[in-house]
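The aim of this short unit is practical: by the end, you should be able to scan a pair of folded records and say something sensible about each. We start with the first protein, listed as its amino acid sequence and then its structure tokens.
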Amino acid sequence: MGRITSYPYLNSLDFALCEFGYVSLRKQTFRNVTVPKGFIFDGVTVKAPFTMLFSQKNLRNGVRASCFHDFMCEHKNKFKRREATKVLCEIWQDDGLGKVKATLVFACVEFYQFLKGWR
């Protein structure tokens, strides 16, 4: 009736789009943070007017960093705010974001999270 087909490209992906944003397709680990397979997150969210500072490539390269950051934000009892922001910026830099933009991201995210009450 049906045919089973292998999709090597899809099997190599770490994330996929879903109804609510992105979903992790495999367990991800960075330092002491492990994001489980199936974690749903909203991707890179950059507030205006800062969106004009980032290219589409910058935003695409930030998906893995966003996954870890969103996971850490959802588990505030396990992680400190500054640690989550550092992980965000380090991973995003590893994935291609320049040092100047990473420094700007760090400052803006820290300020935003502070205003939102995560001390």
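Turning to the second protein, read its sequence before its tokens, just as you did above.
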Amino acid sequence: MFTEKEIEFLKSHHTLRLATASKTGQPDVTPVSYHFDDTFIQVGAVGREKTFKYKNALENQKASFVIDDDVPADTWKSVGLKVHGNIELVNLPDWRGRAPHLRITPLVHWSWGIDTPVLIGGRPFFKRTKW
């Protein structure tokens, strides 16, 4: 589960970089807008049937994404979240009525700079949480 601070982080951002892979293992990464409902990450899929992310989700139900703040590397003030999970096509209500969305169910996530400092003992620290 996400901590309260991680939930605040997810809700304060609007774009993630979604990684999917085809059935043959060809990876694809694309920036997408998303909605977080305290459990799942939803990505709109209306009119996206020809995109790699849509096709890949039908062929391979594994996905990953990253959300982070773009800060200068030398400041060590990076903040971010990486998630591995399952992706599926679902029909959800939206302003059009019901529409296709990609739903990501987290299985494990890593965060940095959200609940803990980025550096601990002079080394980068990534907090891992398995669901």
